[in-house]
Design brief:
Blueprint lengths: L1 H18 L3 H10 L3 H18 L3 H22 L4 H23 L1 H4 L5 H13 L5 H16 L1 H38 L1
C-alpha cells in the first residue's frame, strides 16, 4: 500500500510542477487554499462526467476541439515555428473540418449512439495531441488520397460558391438601395 501511495505522491508532484506554468491555477490555489493539482483533477473529473452523462457534452466537445488547437496554431504561427509544427496544426484543422462536415450529415444517427460525446472527446484528443498525432495518421492514411482525387470537384464547388456569394451580395446591396430610396420617398411625401 505504501508503494502505491508513494507512486501517487510522485505523480501529483510531477503534475504540480507542470501546473506551475499556469498562472490562473496559482491564483485559484491562493484564493481557495486547495492545491492546484487537486483543482485540475477535479475540473477534469467534472468535465469527464459531464461528457459521459451528456450535460452540455456537445458544447464541451466543441470548445475542447477548438480552443486548444486554435491556441497552439496561433503560437506556432507567432513563433514562426518550424514547418513541422505548423503542418501538424494545418492537418488537424483539415481532419477536424472533415469530421465536422460528416457529423452534420449523420447527426440524426449520432443521437442514438450511447456515450457518443465521450467517444468524440477521445477522438478529438487523440487527433490533436502532439504525443499521438492522430490527425496526421488519419490524413496520411485516408484523407490525402481522397481529397487529391476530388480536388477538381472541390475547386469547382468553391468557384460556384464564390460566384453565388457574389451574386447574393449584389442582390442584397440592390435591395438595400431600393429600401433606402423607398424610405427617402416616404419622407418626402
Amino acid at each position: 500500500m505504501d508503494a502505491v501511495m508513494d507512486s501517487l505522491k510522485a505523480q501529483l508532484t510531477q503534475l504540480r510542477s507542470k501546473l506551475d506554468e499556469v498562472p490562473i491555477l496559482q491564483k485559484l490555489e491562493d484564493q481557495c487554499s486547495v492545491p492546484k493539482e487537486y483543482i485540475s483533477i477535479g475540473g477534469a473529473l467534472v468535465v469527464a462526467l459531464a461528457i459521459v452523462f451528456g450535460f452540455s457534452a456537445g458544447s464541451i466537445c466543441g470548445v475542447v476541439g477548438f480552443l486548444y488547437p486554435a491556441a497552439q496554431s496561433l503560437r506556432a504561427i507567432e513563433r514562426k515555428s518550424s514547418g513541422g509544427e505548423v503542418t501538424q496544426w494545418l492537418i488537424y484543422w483539415v481532419v477536424y473540418s472533415f469530421f465536422s462536415i460528416i457529423e452534420v450529415f449523420v447527426d440524426f444517427l449520432l443521437y442514438w449512439i450511447p456515450f457518443y460525446y465521450a467517444f468524440k472527446m477521445a477522438f478529438l484528443l487523440w487527433a490533436m495531441l502532439p504525443q499521438t498525432r492522430g490527425a496526421k495518421f488519419l490524413y496520411d492514411s485516408f484523407l490525402k488520397d481522397f481529397l487529391k482525387s476530388k480536388e477538381s470537384f472541390i475547386d469547382a464547388a468553391l468557384k460556384d460558391a464564390k460566384a453565388s456569394a457574389g451574386n447574393a451580395a449584389s442582390e442584397a446591396a440592390a435591395a438595400a438601395e431600393n429600401v433606402k430610396k423607398t424610405i427617402e420617398q416616404k419622407k418626402g411625401e
